[in-house]
Write a structure and sequence with these properties.
The structure holds two protein chains of two kinds. Chain A is mainly alpha-helical. Chain A has helices at about 15-20, 20-35, 45-60, 65-70, 85, 105-135, 135-145, 150-180, 190-225, 240-260, and strands at about 90-100, 100-105. Chain A is built from ten helices and two strands, in the order αααααββααααα. Chain A has a two-stranded antiparallel sheet. Chain A is flat, with a radius of gyration of 24 Å. Chain B has helices at about 15-40, 45-60, 80-85, 85-105, 115-135, 140-170, 175-205, 225-245, 250-265, 280-310; strands at about 65-70, 70-75. Chain B has a two-stranded antiparallel ribbon with strand order 1-2. In chain B, α1 (about 15-40) packs across α4, α5 runs antiparallel to α6 and α6 packs antiparallel against α7. Classes of the chains: A mainly alpha, B mainly alpha.
Chain lengths: ~260, ~300
């Protein structure tokens, strides 16, 4: 497996790609916060937020519909919000009989349901754009600059660094299992409990291999001059362009907050 | 790259701002305690260990096993991480996993990450470690049994916390979300318990020193036992209370007033309307919860013995 097999970074040269990762993280969080603050049914503000997102897409040189394509990952979770359709009083829109229950969809319930979906859909797209335009190690470094404790950023950096190594390890374990017994997807091996037990032994085996690997990793790092924190060769300095972009983005978010409240 | 998301990661937009911020505050306070403790007790030697172990939890979640009808189960890992690495390290490791899942895979939101860390990282570690530590003096069978119960309960606790947050945010209805979430996760939790017990069995057989008296696993103080037992009790008592709604969906009409109120005043966290839950059937539902726990415990013990007898 390649070392960045998990990264969602898209290599291009664009305005957004060249921005400092700190600015990108801050604007993404501000945008998601703004979505959470918008009241239910603020259609104009939701529309303006989407416009902002489309502009961000265009300035990233990835194509205007780039984030749209991958934006449905959070959709299954919408199931938990479905009850809101029926639970808020208001003018009934539709009424139907389902199994044992008489269900009535109210206009306020519908409004709230759609608003929740739109908020989630907009937020997830901005997060997708963030990882598509900033390399993951740069994001971790930005988190460090934004006062996330170094022990946490270091653990995250290691997690990212060794994920593909252990991912390979998992594939070896799974290939061995498929060759011998409980292959995933079809009925093979013995009972479910037995299969779960096999999976548990694989997890235990992976634990031991990871534990022993961490020893070798530490020794190798000491040999290369590790002194308790990770270094980067990317400069990470805020230039005028970064400040202006951040200010403009925050102004735009402020404006759509106003638009949502009028 | 295959990656199967767990059904507990809340995306952005599904929690209200107030609930998100409260969860962030709780998580931040707990994590700063974890960081302070870890900085004091761990050498720089431990940092790569925790990093690789975070990758281990992430990778272990990829190991799935076929259940039925094309679905498969896999590990969440909170209890396993806390039992093998100690409670504070387990929490930090789980937090790192949740951060990467949210940032890299958009599995879980950013603004609601505090809630996801609380549900899947902190509560699971506290329950997993606290209960396991309570049985630390016992023999191997007892330890493994308790670890299995702790793993099952940690998944149930995460599901319960997620449901409560969704309810407080006005996203879901309590009467539906709690039985649905707890019902699904009662099964997912069985898989978690089986995998955790099997993994610990293997570790105890091959590297008993990693879980012995001088390991990181044994360093947590007795306070964890109290914390773990208290949270477990809260989960065991609260789940049946919240889900045993006498009149089911017919009572929705009564609750509509409360739900409407919840939206206009989301900061009203404990409305008077929840008190009816503590009605006459109080004792019976609590007993039902305890009986359920004993049944699950017995099932896990029997399964464990059956597996050992075979091997």
């Amino acid at each position: 497996m390649h070392f960045d097999a998990f990264d969602r970074y898209h290599e291009t040269n664009s305005f957004v790609h060249r921005l400092d990762p700190r600015i990108k993280v801050a604007v993404t969080v501000a945008f998601i916060l703004s979505n959470a603050l918008l009241p239910d049914g603020a259609w104009i503000a939701f529309g303006l937020s989407w416009m902002l997102l489309l502009f961000a897409n265009i300035f990233s040189n990835l194509g205007i519909a780039f984030t749209l394509k991958r934006s449905f990952v959070a959709l299954p979770f919408a199931l938990v919000a479905i009850t809101v359709l029926f639970s808020i009083p208001g003018n009934p829109l539709a009424s139907f009989h389902f199994l044992l229950w008489d269900l009535t969809i109210s206009d306020t319930g519908f409004l709230r349901f759609v608003s929740i979906l739109i908020r989630s859909w907009l937020s997830v797209q901005m997060a997708i754009l963030l990882v598509a335009t900033a390399r993951f190690p740069d994001i971790i470094h930005a988190l460090g600059h934004l006062r996330v404790p170094s022990i946490l950023t270091t653990i995250i950096a290691f997690l990212y660094r060794y994920l593909f190594v252990l991912g390979d390890e998992v594939f070896r374990l799974m290939r061995a299992r498929e060759a011998r017994s409980a292959a995933a997807g079809r009925r093979s091996g013995r009972s479910v409990v037995w299969r779960a037990n096999v999976a548990g032994h694989m997890a235990g085996q992976l634990f031991l291999r990871s534990y022993e690997r961490s020893d070798r990793v530490y020794n190798a790092m000491l040999a290369r001059g590790y002194a308790g924190h990770l270094e980067t060769i990317n400069p990470h300095e805020l230039r005028r362009r970064d400040y202006i972009t951040a200010a403009l983005a925050l102004l735009a978010i402020l404006f759509l907050q106003l638009a949502g409240r009028l | 790259m295959q990656y199967s998301p767990a059904p507990l990661h809340i995306p952005d937009g599904f929690l209200s701002l107030v609930v998100s911020i409260i969860c962030w505050v709780i998580s931040a306070i707990t994590l700063s305690a974890a960081i302070a403790r870890s900085n004091k007790s761990l050498g720089e030697r431990q940092i790569p260990l925790m990093g690789v172990m975070a990758a281990f939890i992430f990778a272990a979640q990829m190991i799935n096993f076929p259940v039925a009808g094309g679905t498969s189960g896999h590990l969440l890992g909170g209890a396993l991480a806390a039992i093998t690495l100690g409670p504070w390290a387990g929490m930090l490791v789980m937090t790192a996993v949740i951060v990467v899942q949210a940032l890299l895979f958009q599995d879980g939101g950013l603004l609601v990450m505090g809630a996801n860390i609380l549900n899947m990282g902190l509560v699971t570690a506290a329950i997993g470690y606290g209960l396991y530590r309570a049985a630390a003096a016992g023999n191997r069978t007892l330890k493994l049994t308790v670890a299995g119960i702790a793993a099952w309960l940690s998944v149930m606790a995460a599901a319960l916390f997620t449901s409560l947050q969704l309810w407080l945010s006005g996203t879901s209805q309590l009467q539906i979300v709690i039985p649905a979430m707890l019902g699904v996760h009662a099964l997912i939790g069985l898989g978690e318990a089986l995998i955790t017990v099997a993994a610990l069995t293997l570790i105890l057989q091959t590297r008993p020193d990693l879980l012995g008296e001088n390991s990181a696993s044994a360093k947590g103080s007795r306070g964890w036992v109290v914390a773990g037992v208290l949270i477990s009790l809260a989960v065991v008592l609260l789940s049946p209370l919240a889900s045993a709604d006498p009149d089911g969906l017919e009572r929705v009409a009564e609750d509509l007033g409360f739900l409407g109120k919840g939206f206009s005043a989301p900061y009203q966290l404990i409305p008077d309307y929840t008190l009816p839950f503590l009605g006459q059937s109080n004792l019976s539902t609590v007993l039902a919860g305890l009986i359920g726990l004993i049944v699950v415990g017995a099932v896990i013990v029997l399964l464990g013995q059956g597996l050992r007898a075979k091997s």
